[in-house]
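Quick entry between incubations.
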Amino acid sequence: MHTPAPGCMHPGVSKYGYTSSMRSAPPEQPPAGEPGEDEAERYGPLIVRRMVKEDGRALIRFERADDERE
Amino acid sequence: MSSRRFNELRGEEVAYAVARQDRTFLPPEDHCPLDPTRPGGPATEIPFPAFEIVVFDNLFPSFEAPEGAAEVVVYTDDHHGSFAALAPARAQALMWVWRQRYEELGARPDVEYVLIFENRGVEVGTTLHHPHGQIYAFPLLPPVAALELAADARLGGCAPCVLLERELAGGERVVWADEHVAAYVPFAARWPYETHVVMREHRPSLVECTPGELDSLAAALQAVTRGFDRLFEREFPYVMVVHQAPTTGARAGHLHVEFYPPLRTATKLKYLAGCEQGAGTFIMDVLPEDSAAALAEAIGRGG
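Done. Structure below.
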């Protein structure tokens, strides 16, 4: 659920331009590898995972296949 | 929905995206929409507690389907990072992300040109401090890309190939080089520290590059941006633009990255004023040879 920022102009809309419907909340989003997210693809050294946010916008995660977190 | 009008006097398209008037503007850190969504924290654009690199459709697009696209590329889940500060392996991965987006967006029938860029610093209009770049997939060939094709015709071949050969022959404006990539302040720079990072081999786009060339490109871009930050011992604002071949028609173009930094001293900006805007002629306060020497020295200080 969206947390209104200080100075919210009206319910659901922060002064920074985001509404609760624009933001995607984690409990409503499928985690990686679960329904709602496509199968992982390979692109060069990367693993590519695609999903559609709740407002219909596309999101793509890119991870290195030989992931070594910095 | 964005729209376009043709400016007859300038002979160019103007894009109108009025929804962007209300876009997120310099939010405090705890409301950064590009941070990961952490347990118990506010929801952000990225519904994961950690990530490497994420690309998503811009909430406030300048172009959108069925006439182009606008995407945000988030380099890291570290709010305080920067492109220069990325670990080398992450910067190398970003080159592959750029390549994948160029290839996929460029394959769309409504896209003629893919522009990958980063605006760093409030001086060049960034509205979010979190390290990120953007991608605009144009439904038209923009004027700068058209000018580059015209330069090819004027020089009788690939203009960046010709200009790179000249720069390497003289060498006084070269600030960084390895076997695959060279970086220089161009002979007729329009910004005090304008820098071009150019592939030595003729590569129309990231797609034609070898993995080694992509690694070199990442190293060159990080060397230049780290040098920028050392130059005046401050976060150095810049516009960074990846120039590649249009995605329709002949594969004419030569992959290179251009930086347009607005600073002329640590505290003074180069403005586009009467002469630049009214006549289209840039007036420069510093010679490219002098700024190249200073930048090369700053890059060299990084070892």
